[in-house]
Specification:
The structure holds 2 protein chains of 2 kinds.
Chain A lengths: L5 E2 L5 E2 L15 H22 L3 E3 L1 H4 L6 H4 E2 L4 E2 L2 H13 L3 E3 L7 E4 L4 H16 L5 E3 H5 L12 H13 L3 E6 L2 E6 L6
Chain B lengths: L1 H5 E3 L6 H4 L6 E12 L2 E2 L6 E6 L2 E6 L3 H4 L1 E4 L3 E7 L8 E6 L16 E2 L6 E2 L56 E2 L6 E2 L42 E6 L4 H14 L1 H12 L9 H55 L7 H14 L10 H23 L15 E3 H12 L6 H7 L3 H4 L5 E4 L6 E4 L5 H15 L1 E3 H8 L3 H13 L3 E5 L5 E5 L13
Antiparallel strand pairs in B: 1-6, 2-3, 2-4, 2-13, 4-5, 5-6, 7-8, 8-13, 9-10, 11-12, 14-16, 15-16, 17-19, 18-19
Classes of the chains: A alpha+beta, B alpha+beta.
GO molecular function, one term (chain A): structural molecule activity
Family (chain A): Belongs to the VPS25 family.
Protein name (chain A): ESCRT-II complex vps25 subunit
Chain lengths: 193, 534
Amino acid sequence: MSFSTYKTPSGFLLPSIHSAPPFFTQQPNAATQVVFTEQWTRLILAYARYRRLFTVRVEDAEVSGGEWDEVLRNPRINRRLMPGQLAHILSVMVSENLAMYEPAKQTRATLLYWRLPEEWAEVLYEWQVVNTGQLNTILTFYEISEPPVPSELSGIPQSLLRSAIAVLVKGGRAQLISISDGDGVRFFPRNAK
Amino acid sequence: MTLQRYTRSVDGTIPISALLYGDEDSYASQDGVGIYDGVQKSINHQNGTVYVTTHRLFYIDTTKPHSRSFALDLSSIVRTQYYAGLFTSSPKVTIYLTQETSEIMDSDETSESWLCEVCDFRNPPGSSPSGAKCALCGVPRSKAHSAAPIPPRAVSAPPSSAHLLSSSPPAPSAGRLKEVACPACTFLNHPALTECEICGTALTHAALPMKSAPSSRPGTPIPEGAGDENSMLRLSFRRGGDKALYAVLKRSLLGKAWQVRAKTIGQRTTSTNVERFGIDGLVRGVETSAQSAQLDMNDALKDLDALMVKAREMVRLAGELNERLTVVAGLNASSGGTEPDTATFIRSSLVQLGLQMTDVPVTLDMAHDEKRWYEQLARELAGVLQGTGGKNGIGMMRNRGIIPLDEVWGGWNRARGVALLTPSQFLQVLPHLPAYTHPAIAERTFHSSNLRVLHTPTYTPAAFAARLHGMLLISGSRTTLDIAQEENVPVGLVAEMVDEAEAQGVVCRDEAEHGEVSWWVNDFQGYVWDGQDT
């Protein structure tokens, strides 16, 4: 009995465990369930990074036709992840700081940290310095998430961007500025202080 | 006329003994007898045999026994007269008959079956009218035989009764003299009535006879001629034997067997040795048996009480004996006495009898004895489980590796037949079982359901898990049912075992939507990511 990997139409290489039917069932055995949750977490983050997906909702497991179908369903073995199990996986991810509920105070939609806010901060800073060289100028959030030239930051949710900037502000490399049409940010050179 | 009024026709072709009532005895007989009806010779009864019984006087005609024979109830005789005869005149016995109380039935019912008024049961003949009771319900036979199914015979019935239109049942004809005519409608009422049966008018029992009333009005007819001559019969003994028969007749009349009979029946109703039939008999029988059962029970319980008292004495005695033995044993302890064996025997016997001594703890010696007992039981159980045939047949686990405890207990007790074991005793035997079985049979409890089973080494958790793992490796996945078929073990037991294997992480489940659970080898513990590189 061996399972094989599978390349989805979008080009993502699904791990072999994804073709094992038990992988889609909630296991009463806690140890087994931990292994499965771990693999699901890894799979969800990998797919999110591959497809640049920032959120996953419990609805994605309930209704087909979404961006997550390739992962949450396996029509080749006629299995799909049950919404309850997805909710369980998400709660584990939140508790491990691999995701956060967005908006807060609910458990049906999460923002995925396939990069941690600290990593995003680095990415943001590098992009700012290397790609634009616009130090000391003020950029709006819109300019960052919807740049004319697509970047790694394209489409980044505001809340994630805000926490990334918060990391930079803490390190003295950026300053949050309130301007008329929304918030803006000014970056400082790394050795400014 | 007297003949017709007082006698009943009988079939003389039947032997006389068959005509008698059950309680009637025949005393004497004389042939060559002629009958006078009143003072006239009765033409049809001039040569016959007369029988005298305790109840009746029979005349069986010699020439035409079928049609001319008759019987006369002795109860209707008031007195008799003997005439010794002179020259050509034969000796005669004159019988004077009562005019008032005679009860001549319309029909010859005593030799026929009769219908009970209450339950409509057709009773067989054989008992005199006064003593007859329904064989089914026990109700005495009614005097007024309204339900008698046999139509009145023309021979014995008064001629005028044929055209009766009366609403009352055909009443005894001789009772007419006391009937009371209603002053308003002239209906002849029964003397017991105080109101007219027809119109309700109060009756005066001293009412004058109704001269204007027609003689054939409703009611049974007034007997024609109530004179002395008309209530008299004569027996003419043409061939002698008159004295002997007359003596017997007198004796019968004095004996008044018909009255005695009625009296004894009345007394016997309370006695139990009377033969009874029907519902009455059944009810009485049930009552009797219930009564005797009650008595037996009381006796038995008395015995039990006595036994209990004795048992208590026994226990006390044994306790005293035990104490004394213990003291002696204590004294002999230094010198290595052998008394403890005896004490142990007494104590263990008491325990096995269920007679616990309150102040004596269960000692090690007793436990030792019990242990031996349980070991023997374990040996027996091993035979029941693994026997190769013989008395107990093939052992229960000969072809089965795993078997629920309740089934074993039931099977063992069935095999024992007597001296059944309690579940608690059974459970105490189980720890000794592996020592006496080969392969060793052990007990196992499933955690999820607390179901307890006995199993061979093949079905230890580890062995089963290993086998299951191998099976799933080859086949991919299996449902519980598949596994049960492969293992030849009941599904319920397999489910329990697979659950335990799952708890150990050997297998993992796959629940398809709305589908059955299938089991997979849990090889994901050390899974290495082989998907998209990140």
